[in-house]
């Protein structure tokens, strides 16, 4: 990938290498593949190839997704749980039909209190339903945020809100980032989530930071959070 980014080889060569990993069982390897595909998706979101790279993601991640399934198997280790969350999140964001349907079903049960999602599955399910959701999905997520007793759950929700796609809902998330509902040290995570969520999100987050620069700068002064904000 480094060679492709430097223009030394074609990105097609990178994708061919990635295809060779479909039977890979190791979480660390998949995490690296996922990160690199994320970089490619971000670059290609400005081109006509964006939809095609999503199809590629679905093709590469489907076999491991089917093997892992949604529920833990006896004797599984911690890395298997991490891998399941990573794979389902990747498939869900890419719009894999079966993953999206199951995520919506489990999300509904979770919200209604019928079957609470395990901690490992919450982020991938939240990301999936938001990415392909509407204003009622966002409202439900904000309600879950308000009701959450644990800061860990609030942070989990804050990190994924930026997955929402519609411009007016992206603005709603950015406004929420500066509200009293979000701790000042967590505002950057919400804005960063928007910036990393989509092409529309990146543009909106950049404009939002510029429009609210004085407030953000005064809030963080010379601390590490201001540099993190600029970086995302």
TrEMBL record:
Residues annotated as domain ERAP1-like C-terminal: 3-231
GO biological process, alphabetically ordered: peptide catabolic process; proteolysis
Organism from which the protein derives: Menura novaehollandiae
Name of this chain's protein: PSA aminopeptidase
Similarity-based family: Belongs to the peptidase M1 family.
InterPro entries membership: ERAP1-like_C_dom (IPR024571), Peptidase_M1_aminopeptidases (IPR050344)
Record keywords, A-Z: Aminopeptidase, Hydrolase, Protease
Name of the gene encoding the protein in the UniProt record: Npepps_1
Example of a GO cellular component annotation carried by this entry: membrane
């Amino acid at each position: 990938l480094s060679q492709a980014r430097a223009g030394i080889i074609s990105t097609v060569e990178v994708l061919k290498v990635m295809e060779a990993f479909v039977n890979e069982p190791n979480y660390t390897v998949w995490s690296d593949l996922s990160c690199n595909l994320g970089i490619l998706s971000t670059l290609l979101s400005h081109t006509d190839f964006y939809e095609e790279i999503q199809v590629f993601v679905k093709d590469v991640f489907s076999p491991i997704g089917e093997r892992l399934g949604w529920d833990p198997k006896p004797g599984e280790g911690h890395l298997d749980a991490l891998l399941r969350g990573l794979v389902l999140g990747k498939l869900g964001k890419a719009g894999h039909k079966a993953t999206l349907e199951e995520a919506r079903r489990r999300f509904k049960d979770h919200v209604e209190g019928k079957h609470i999602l395990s901690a490992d599955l919450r982020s991938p399910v939240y990301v999936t339903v938001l990415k392909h959701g509407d204003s009622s999905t966002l409202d439900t997520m904000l309600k879950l945020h308000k009701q959450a007793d644990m800061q860990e759950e609030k942070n989990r929700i804050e990190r994924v809100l930026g997955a929402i796609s519609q411009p007016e809902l992206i603005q709603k998330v950015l406004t929420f980032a500066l509200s009293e509902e979000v701790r000042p040290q967590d505002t950057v995570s919400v804005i960063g989530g928007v910036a990393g969520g989509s092409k529309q999100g990146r543009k909106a987050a950049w404009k939002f930071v510029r429009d609210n620069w004085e407030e953000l700068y005064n809030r963080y002064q010379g601390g590490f959070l201001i540099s993190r904000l600029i970086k995302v």
